[in-house]
TrEMBL record:
GO cellular component, one term: endomembrane system
Entries under SUPFAM superfamilies matching the protein: Periplasmic binding protein-like II (SSF53850)
Chief place where the protein resides: membrane
The species this protein was found in: Erythrobacter mangrovi
Cellular compartment(s): Endomembrane system
Record protein name field: ABC transporter substrate-binding protein
Entry keyword Cell membrane: yes
Keyword Transport: yes
InterPro entries from the UniProt entry: NrtA/CpmA_ABC-bd_dom
Key words of the record: Cell inner membrane, Cell membrane, Membrane, Transport
Lineage: superkingdom: Bacteria
């Protein structure tokens, strides 16, 4: 009876905070797990680690859950599996539940009650492009100075254009963090990555650099084949290019946006409403796994690497996974640097699903034309609250605090917004309370009143 009552509470509760209002409060959830047997999907990337660790270290079992983890061929297959009910939830691109909820690509009511991690991606260029730009890059201590601006690519892109060839780069999905990070980096370097016209999934209108979709594990092979000249992807597929000697990572996403949110746990809204106690148990298990991954300054990362290297998880060589999972990142052979924050799973409130994170993704969808027309600030706030569910996160985390499993200081008291953020490569600050004002700051990107057609951008 308690679980049934909780489901009604859950269905009507999307967080009490308003933009700049009161702090978010936990959803009222209690009772026994309603559905112990679950199937979760994932893509073979190191940032699926919280799911693998929750399984292998027994955190799912501690919460009364029997979870099967199933790798998916690509992000579209994974999304369809969650929407269709073949999967109960998944390691998901942050943009996927947002895009589905607003009906971009496909329409479904999905939610993100937990953020899986911060950072974890990089941009890699082919050897031939790297050799073209490296001589022009500034150095520091005998090594190339970082972060590297995309402006270094401008002469190369111009040369391709003179030869009548497109300069192609890859990303993993139209609403992926990787797409928006790659676009952000290119635009900050004064290169236009193109706009999406209505009904267009290519996003190449007016593009200086043309972006296309490639599933993460296929990135190195696609680069080696010469189909693309670079890509943005999560690990271990940047380090795989280094190991194979076919490419050079030039910038991490942390250098594009410091401590940016990455993947989320994606669920159907009706699943969370029908099975509130199961949802809370699922979140508790994953939060425990996130804490384990960041515990004692990464003391458990070596064990995590061994687990992830298994073929049923990421299936890459231990050395390749360890190259970015253990506090280091290799840009090219002989240039390995400290990168303690490259993967953050628990620290810095990494698991909390901030409304402002969802709003940032929505601003980038509008910036590049995936949202075809202007929206008022209130639309951004309401959409974020429909998808990102800190009330559910708090229901799980608060119980873990009460039971002494995680410290109270690891759970923020907030209205769901991070406040003004810096740390972007172009020096622009972001405030989730002012999405339209943020969009107006960009030199490259749609402005108020502008629309995209196949012929280009029109409007004031």
């Amino acid at each position: 009876m308690v679980a049934v009552v909780a489901s009604f509470v859950l269905a009507g509760c999307s967080g009490s905070a308003s933009e700049g209002g009161d702090k978010v409060v936990a959803a009222a959830i209690d009772g026994q797990v309603e559905r112990p047997n679950l199937k979760l999907g994932f893509i073979k990337l190191t940032d699926m680690a919280p799911l693998a660790i929750a399984k292998e270290k027994g955190f799912f079992a501690e919460e009364g859950l029997n979870v099967t983890l199933e790798p998916q061929a690509n992000w579209k297959v994974l999304l369809d599996g969650v929407i269709g009910g073949q999967l109960d939830g998944a390691h998901m691109l942050a943009g996927q539940p947002i895009a589905a909820t607003i009906g971009y690509g496909t329409q479904a009511n999905l939610i993100a009650p937990l953020s899986l991690d911060l950072n974890g991606n990089a941009i890699t260029l082919s050897n031939r492009v790297w050799q073209d730009i490296k001589p022009s890059l500034p150095t520091e201590g005998g090594k190339v100075k970082h972060p590297i601006s995309a402006s270094a690519l401008k002469p190369v892109v111009a040369k391709y254009e003179q030869q009548g060839k497109p300069f192609n780069m890859g990303m993993v999905f139209p609403v992926s963090t990787h797409n928006y990070e790659l676009r952000y980096w290119l635009a900050a370097g004064d290169l236009n990555p193109g706009y999406y016209a209505p009904g267009d999934v290519g996003g190449t209108v007016s593009a200086d650099v043309k972006l296309s979709v490639t599933p993460p594990p296929q990135m190195p092979a696609t680069l080696e084949a010469g189909t693309i000249e670079g890509y943005c992807v999560g690990e271990p597929w940047n380090q795989a290019a280094v190991q194979k000697g076919i490419g050079v990572p030039v910038i991490t996403d942390d250098e594009i946006w410091h401590d940016n949110p990455e993947k989320v746990l994606g669920l159907r809204e009706d699943f969370a409403a029908k099975y509130p106690a199961t949802t809370a148990a699922l979140l508790r298990a994953i939060i425990k796994a996130q804490q384990w991954l960041d515990a004692d300054s990464g003391a458990n990362r070596a064990e995590a690497v061994k687990i992830l290297s298994q073929p049923n998880y990421v299936g890459a060589d231990e050395a390749v996974i360890a190259a970015s999972m253990t506090g280091k990142f290799t840009f090219e052979k002989g240039d390995t640097r400290d990168a303690k924050g490259f993967n953050i799973f628990f620290d810095k409130f990494a698991g909390y699903p901030y409304y402002s994170d969802a709003i940032w993704y929505l601003t980038q969808m509008r910036r590049w034309g995936q949202i075809a027309e202007d929206k008022p600030d209130s639309w951004y706030f309401e959409t974020a609250k429909a998808v990102y569910r800190p009330d559910l996160y708090l229901a799980a985390a608060s119980k873990l605090v009460k039971d002494g499993v995680i410290p109270g200081t690891s759970v923020p008291e907030t209205d769901g917004y991070r406040g003004e953020q810096g740390g972007f490569i172009d020096g622009i600050t972001y405030d989730g309370h002012q999405p339209n004002a943020y969009l107006a700051k960009f030199k490259i990107g749609l402005k108020k009143g502008q629309k995209v057609t196949a012929a280009g951008v029109s409007g004031s």
